[in-house]
Automatic annotation (TrEMBL):
It comes from Chitinophaga qingshengii. Gene3D superfamilies: 1.20.120.1630. It comes from the Bacteria. The keyword Transcription does not apply. Pfam families: ICMT. PROSITE patterns: PROKAR_LIPOPROTEIN. It is found in: Membrane. This is Isoprenylcysteine carboxylmethyltransferase family protein. Keywords: Membrane, Transmembrane, Transmembrane helix. It is a multi-pass membrane protein. The keyword Transmembrane helix applies. InterPro entries: ICMT_MeTrfase, Metal_cation-efflux_comp.
């Protein structure tokens, strides 16, 4: 079945993503009502996107082709990045609470969250997600994983622009001041 034997690091990243998925599924309906509902098509496209990402991440297990060398140090670093990224995603999601939305959407009685990782970065869920993808890519070593990571990073960066426009409309003045005190994705840098 597998052309490449899964390493301990592969299992670590798989379990991280399993925890991520369980958390997201558990919390998905525990949110405030959207001002504008997401369509069924948007939900399906999101689901399909996640499926493509995760197939891309672990493709080398089935094809046996790696772009990156299978060095233990590289894979250990990747596993640590994945653990840290998933932990940041979950912490940030829990802090957002009922204000979270899968798409760019305003919630009824929307609140601006500025505690925890939100004190330093405005989009820590995206930071964590990209970090976990990059870490998993180091573990699996596949070119499809690296491409999926880059495409996701670019797509999330574009989504950030939409979110920030919406948040500036929802919190005039307040969000602009918050933007001046924080970075988008990487503390003190970006």
């Amino acid at each position: 079945m597998f052309k490449e034997s899964p390493t301990l690091f592969t299992w670590v990243t798989c379990n991280c993503w399993l925890v991520f998925g369980c958390c997201w599924l558990t919390l998905r309906n525990r949110t405030k009502e959207n001002v504008q509902l997401r369509t069924t098509r948007q939900r399906w496209m999101g689901f399909i996107g996640y499926c493509v990402i995760f197939v891309s991440l672990y493709l080398p297990l089935f094809t046996g082709t790696r772009l990156l060398p299978a060095l233990s140090a590289l894979q250990a670093a990747g596993a640590l990045l994945c653990i840290g990224g998933i932990a940041l995603c979950i912490w940030s999601r829990l802090l957002l609470g009922t204000n979270w939305s899968g798409g760019v959407a305003a919630k009824k009685d929307h609140e601006l969250i500025v505690k925890g990782p939100y004190r330093l970065i405005r989009h820590p869920i995206y930071t964590g997600f990209i970090t976990a993808l990059a870490g998993t890519s180091l573990v699996s070593g596949g070119s499809a994983a690296l491409i999926a990571t880059l495409v996701c990073a670019m797509a999330l960066y574009l989504k950030i622009e939409q979110e920030e426009t919406l948040l500036n409309e929802l919190f005039p003045g307040t969000y602009a001041a918050y933007q001046q005190q924080t970075r988008k994705l990487i503390p003190f840098i970006l």
